[in-house]
Amino acid sequence: MKPRIKIVYKKTATSFHGRYKGYLLNLFVDEANGCWYIIVTALDGCYAYDGWWRDSEYKTVDEAILEAIRGAGINQ
Fold this sequence. Notes:
Helix content: 10-25%
Structural class: alpha+beta
Largest sheet: 5 strands, antiparallel
Number of domains: 1
C-alpha cells in the first residue's frame, strides 16, 4: 500500500517536494552521478534523513519517496 503524501511541489521523474506525517520530503536526482539525494526534515527543522541514496541510479521517484520514508523512520 502506498502512503498518502501531500505533494507540495511538482512531482517529476527526477525531483519531488512533499509532506508526510509532519515531515518535509525533498528529493532530487543529481545529474552528475544519477543517484537520488534525499532530505527529510521535521517541521521544527530537525533532519531525519540527509544524504545520498546509494546505488539508486535506476530507481523511480516513487521508490525514492518510499526510501525517504523508510530511511527517516516515519513509516509507522
